[in-house]
Structure formats: structure tokens, C-alpha cells
Amino acid sequence: MNIKIRNGIEVQATGGLIVEQAWLQYASGPLVRDGNIINLGEKINLHLIILGWKGMNDQISIGASEKIVTDEGQYFLNEADLFARYDTLPLEAVQKISLSAVIENIDRLVDFFRVDFRIYSKTFPEQEINGYYLFHI
């Protein structure tokens, strides 16, 4: 297996899950270069290739939380379950999960933004991915 993790993304998987790849990409298409510098209003997507999900009848119920906070502790986002509107998804569909982040406006300069994410199985709670990455404006 060839694990590829870019952009300083820190990730930990449990319950038999393996994060095979993780990277950041601008919504406009190009990959985010090392240093993770973005412009205000520019959306970035975290992409994860995940192996090992367990399901029932080739279906799974997952949840994902995402928080964006500055180095000074100011919250820009705190979502408890980004997949709440989906009862179940096909197992094949959750092998690649993408979460997005965008900062539209700031009221003061900060050194960095930290994005914390958690992706988990609602059916098999031992299956969980926790991680974070930093970006700069």
C-alpha cells in the first residue's frame, strides 16, 4: 500500500480504517502547494481516500464534524455533523470523502487557521478518523 499524505495533514484512523491518501485542493482545480496559503474567499477541499469501512448490505451511516479556529481561538466554523441529512450512503461512496473550508472575511490578522475534522461510522463507532491541518491567508 502506498500511503500519500500531503499539506501537513495529520490524521489518525481506528477500527480498521486506513487513510490511503489525503490532500488539499483549491475548489478551482489546482492542488494547494506546501505552505497551505489561500486567499480570502477561496474555497479549499480536503480529500481523503479511506479503506476499510464496514457496512450493512453495502450501506453505511457516517457523520463528519469540522471546526475552523484561528491561532487565537476565534471560531469560524463548528459543524457537528455535515452528513446529518443522509440516512445511509453506499459503501463505495465513502471511500473518497471531501470536506471544504473557506474564510470569507477576517476582522483581524492571525498567524494561521486550524481545521479539525472527525469522520465516523454511526453503525460501527470504533471506526473513526480524526485529524487536522493548518492554512494561512
List the helices and strands and how they pair.
Blueprint: E1 4-5, E2 10-14, E3 18-26, E4 44-51, E5 59-60, E6 62-70, E7 75-79, E8 89-90, E9 96-101, E10 113-121, E11 128-135
Parallel strand pairs: 1-3
Antiparallel strand pairs: 2-11, 3-4, 4-9, 5-8, 6-7, 6-10, 10-11
Notes on the structure:
By secondary structure, the chain is mainly beta. It has no helices and 11 strands. It has strands at residues 4-5, 10-14, 18-26, 44-51, 59-60, 62-70, 75-79, 89-90, 96-101, 113-121, 128-135. The termini are far apart. 20% of the residues are buried.
Q: Can you summarize this structure?
A:
The chain is an all-beta fold and 137 residues long. It contains no helices and 11 strands. Strands 2-11-10-6-7 form a 5-stranded antiparallel beta sheet, with no helix packed on it. Strands 1-3-4-9 form a 4-stranded mixed beta sheet, with no helix packed on it. A two-stranded antiparallel sheet has the order 5-8.
